[in-house]
Structure prediction request, 81 residues.
Amino acid sequence: MKPGSNSNSVTVSPALLAEIHAAAEEERRAPSEVMKEAIERYLENRRLQRLYAYGEERARSLGLTEADIPRLIAEARQERR
Prediction:
């Protein structure tokens, strides 16, 4: 689906749809709310994964390792004072 298109339909397998309905009923929510929340969480997770990947690549390009983190935090805190 292209951004800006008028279609809001999503194909969901019958088994997944049954799980969505069961979860919605258990939580006394509309199935559409459960699906909306799941999509929002997926997209937020995707954004975080991209950010982590960027950070890892940046650290690699600078030659930093996990062992450098405490020193870098201490240096940053010193600079703020």
Observations:
- Residues 36 and 42 are 10 Å apart (CA to CA).
- The mean pLDDT is 93.
- The chain has one domain: 14-80.
